[in-house]
Records
---
Amino acid sequence: MVMETMVAKRALRGLVAVGGLAVASAAAAMSMAGGNESMAPRHAAQSASISVSGCWIRSLPPPAPSAAYFVVHNEGIRNAALTGASSPAFGSVMLHKSIESGGVSSMVMEPRIPVPAKGNVTFKPGSYHAMLEKPRQKLVVGTKLELDLQLASGETARASCLVRPAGALSR
């Protein structure tokens, strides 16, 4: 009987170890979503209260990264937050903010951008922007490309972005 109990305990420890490994693997995979590649599902529900307008992309020759600019509108009664972005036209999309310190401009990745209830957030040159890297196609001025913004709620907001010339400063 003692031997059977010892065998059962070892088997149970093995199952716990395997289960713990599975949980650790899932956690590691989820943590990668915070990196350069958006791992958000492409089939998430569209937000009823968040919309995007005026989206445009500055066309730069590959392999130079480009940027998307737009206005996010929150018609809802609750605050929202952008947590990521993706586009079938780019291998990597990150939400950034340009900052200036001591006369030097730099960009910082923004993991969460608040969008106030009944308010707007503007993505424009010198401020917030979606950094578009690893283009999967040539950017042709005048064409439109999709951009999906991921929200903290798990929903998405889709934008249709007009490709503008490299020298464009606004839509």
---
Amino acid sequence: MPRQSDLRYTFEHRADGHTLILTDRVGGLGTIGTRSDCPVLYQPMGGGDSMEPALNRFHYTEQVRTARQVQRDYTFIHPYYNQQHTATGDQDLNNQHQDYERFDYPGRYKRDIAGKPFTKTRLAALRNDAKLAHVAGDDARLQPGLAFDLNEHPREDFNDRWRTIAIRHEGKQHSSLLEEAVGSDSGTFYEMKASAIRWTSDWKAPLRDKPCIDGPQIATVVGPPEEEIYCDEWGRVKVQFPQTISGQHHLTAGQGMHHTTTVYQLQASERVVFQSPGGSLTLDAQGIHLNGVAITLHGPVTSTTPGAGQALTLQLQPEAGQTCVEKNR
């Protein structure tokens, strides 16, 4: 849900505690220093031990990615409206061709107010690696989400503010050396590898596929406690699956589901078929009644209905816990 809603998070570590930060734009996460002073040196030809941490590799790449995202979805409230929304990356394409289109269905939204930002977010997620800088060095101050100012690069346009989006630290220390490590030929090793974007660019996390539901599932019909049969304003029954955390069969814990012409009582079980892999569209396929017999017959019951010159007799004879039905005309 945070990915689809364009939310991302990071941690701010301090001596007095740690803070979880949620934001919808990476530009609000700050820098590794102050807002005006966060320099990181670039020293590709450094020999021996450097006087201060620096980056020794800086590789900038641009990739061809999706230029236009088109999505559709379906809702039973407006079945003839395809809910199509389109997002284009005009400001970020530069020399890339604009006809690289991607079409997705379902878009996982039911209203236009959600479809427009969802489509825009999905396009940004597909283009999150269109322009990346890959760096390496020993400056451990770099953190995901925080920006830094690159200095002393031979290309002046690269001496700009960059924002780290991913980082990997690698260190080696031979434990067998212990206190004899001073005179050893192999000492400790540390290297940092990271990916960064320009500070003017926004970054969206890649969208993952929604977990799929394989095959039919069993669910329990739920509703208000004072009702025996309940449907909502669209004729849907509410069901609750066994894996629901609350475990209480009440209306607020249920999920709306379209049903067939059969009317099910509350607390009855249903065999639910998912019409979409993500479970957004469900349809009951078969009812499994858990209620017992409404009345107990203590003896034979015969009912005769005359008409058209003949009689129709219905006789119920419960014997040994079974009910037999006989019809005589």
---
Amino acid sequence: GKREPPPSPYHHLQPLNSPSHTHQLRVWPGRAYAPHCFVDGIPWAEDDLPTSGIARTFNVHLRDQFGNSLVRKPFEIEPEEVEVDFKPKAGSLTSQGTVFSLRAIQQVQLDRTILITDLYNGTYVVSFTPFIQGTYSIDVTVNKTRIS
């Protein structure tokens, strides 16, 4: 007689469109990947330069190695907006393998405050208020790699 093939180990699976066997899976983005991260809002136009005592903002956009926005809050900070003293050496926030830091490249003491707001869409709004006249350079790094 004719031999029957052995039963498939998958015989119990239903087609993907079967509602009784649909499962939802949430996939989070990976850790921030500097080559895909970027800053916008800097530099300012010559007629729109920062003025001492007035807050200015720029945006930092964090992406993983596949270009996914970091939509979850990668920094365990309470409250959602955090004030950090912004000195020449560094202010940095670290969590889950991601380091996002802002560093002033300047020798003089900077008396100013920085506020980082998470928009929960991969974008962070950085607001800072310079109080001392002069030329400033701001480095934005992700995992110790400078982003532009």
---
Amino acid sequence: MDNGPLTLYSANSKTGIPIGTIHRHFGQLSKSGKIRVYESKKKGRKKIGYGPTVYGIIKAYKQDREFAEKIENYFLIWIENKEFQKDLEKEGFDITIGNLKKSKHVFRKFLEYFSAVEEQIEKIRRGDDSTSRDIQVLFGSMMLSSDTHYQKLWAELYDQLPGIQKYLDEYMESMIKSYKEFKKHSREHNLKTK
């Protein structure tokens, strides 16, 4: 993280770990979405430079205290890279360089929030009882929401089952109330910072 994109060979020279082991780990990290190819040079021996994804940084932020303490420095190193900027833009960041440099503190907050989200996802995957059945059903329903077959079934069930109507209506009203509170706090925060 202290330098730009890392190749297998630069990782080998810095760590002394065999290239095959590094290649395997880079493959696993790439497959899991934690790193990706940032650059590929075709002249001579093919050099592939790998760098972090925002998802990879979120995971490392939660797992490594030393990494988390240096995150703003890492942010300033990596924002110079166009591939990292593309990832940030997908996450909603304003990627004009002037705004990116100001965003390092926002990035820390972003990582703190989304690393907590990732922790909740891990709890669900492990089957921890802390996630209520209602929330699990909600997640499952959201995952099916783009499938027209299940959209139609859900609409029919909503029309035919008063309990589902009540549950969904209460949930949506709760979400609307939460969203209004969120907007209120956001406006108050914006007024304080101006």
